[in-house]
Amino acid sequence: MADHDAIIVGSGINSLACAALLARGGWNVCVLERSATLGGAIQTAELTEPGYLHDVFSAWHPLWVGGAAHAELADELAAHGLEYLNTGHPSATLYPDGEAAFLFRDADANAAELDRHSEGDGDAWRRVLDGFLPTADLAFGVLGTELWSREGLGLGIKSFRRLGARGLVEFTGNVLTTSRDWLTDNFASGRAHGLLAPWVLHTGLGPDAATSGFMTQVIAVAIQEGGMPIPRGGGAKLVDALVALIREHGGVCETGRDVDQVVVSGGEASGIRLADGEVVSAARAVIANVTPTQLYRRLLDGDLPADVAERGKRFRYGRSEMQIHFALSEPPRWDGDERLGRTAIVHLTPGLDGVSRAVNEAERGLLPAEATVVVGQPLTMDPSRAPDGAGLLWIQLQELPWEVKGDAAGELETGAGEWSEDLRERYADRIQARLAAHIPNLESSLRRRVALSPADLQAANINLQQGDPYSGSLALDQNLLWRPFPANPGHATPVGRLWQIGASTHPGPGLGAGSGTLVAKQLLKEPLLARARKRLRR
Ligand SMILES: Cc1cc2nc3c(=O)[nH]c(=O)nc-3n(C[C@H](O)[C@H](O)[C@H](O)COP(=O)(O)OP(=O)(O)OC[C@H]3O[C@@H](n4cnc5c(N)ncnc54)[C@H](O)[C@@H]3O)c2cc1C
What we know:
Distance between the termini: 5 Å
Radius of gyration: 23 Å
Bound molecules: flavin-adenine dinucleotide
Number of helices: 18
Number of strands: 20
């Protein structure tokens, strides 16, 4: 008799969504998490000062709220206390000259805003929407379908029937285009380019990478239609609700349980061995939310197809990231447009070329001279996260190297190239000075700053290898049809009943829980008769 139907290694959003869906489907699930808290890259903590609730890593939930798992679980999660807040001011870009451009939740308002910067760009926005919305189901279908499966084939056939051969080629070309090409083809104004280009950083890409144009469109439309939802009280409220739901359906979620090996018998996964030697068995599936490097270097050994094992071990990571959290005694007072103070996410950048330059510098091992600063302001929606009258900022820097070869600004001594505490703080000082130039009361109201370097990210979560927030480069050969890597795309592994989920797998990073949902749905489809037979065999 096995201990559980399914064991899920790790407790990231993909694990919890997968476990919740399986548990509701009658499976006896067990989530095993190596660290002391559940949720992976979703953690809420009083990181700086008492009363200041910081989302330590991820913070913004449009992908979750727009995703398939949320569609299925929303009511039950709400019953467990999860409440989403949203805003009419989801995003803006602030340029060094103090001018700002805004993205709203309304097509007409966005068209008017783009026209404000360059007459005619408003019509261009409407043309973009008219072109995108009729094929939105196909675009989102690419991100919500197991591509190497009957459903993937079905999506291909549906696209062919709808668009014809030529239309399909055009659609595919549109998926592959770069953000730079798409933006400059469609909009005249540099302000429009700079408003949308930084969003590709949130998909792990840069504006000159293949597929970044497609991701720019998907995100721009998703923000207009869905805003920038966050849970009241912090991201961890989503984790709490999912865990409560799993437990309500008889599932188990445990922390401090480091899975060291997948136990394989007769070519099939039958359970896992923990680092302390304990074996936990699973009758129907082991679902590993781990990176390919951990899966093929640590959890699996023995008889594996050599090409798969080798390629898995050589899976590549993307750029590194740093977080900076500010606790302020009063709200930040932005210079210039007062709407900046009401906007959930403000990107501070010179624009498309600025993002491109910073990405390129990071990819060449340099600290960027003028990084794109992502300024998150959760208090614009949820004042409960700080003491009355206080301020709090969530800062993300997505253009950093893992091995630091130098400083593009020629200012910081980077030593041996490792992320020391000293380098982290001096780089954070540079970012703080950039912010202070636009937020005059930043330094006078600063109560405490906590910065997390790429090394801190890796230490906090083994899936954030090399401080890559997206658990693997999203270069084309590791993206979409090829994710996690071409020798073994999709979620099935060479070992029977062993599945891989998580940000390293299709549809990639973010809180959409896409991979966990795809695998859960696949497992729940198992015919009743086969399930009954398996139960009898146990
Ligand atoms: C700083 C930062 C900011 C981000 N901001 C956003 C955002 O605002 N919005 C958004 O949509 N996305 C954001 N992302 C991306 C998003 O958070 C991640 O892509 C997503 O949370 C990854 O979820 P996951 O299911 O892949 O697993 P993870 O969240 O990576 O969790 C994996 C868990 O598995 C555990 N684990 C791994 N190996 C083992 C093992 N052998 N045994 C036991 N446990 C194990 C780890 O300890 C970890 O807790 C951000 C990411 C980071 C790092």
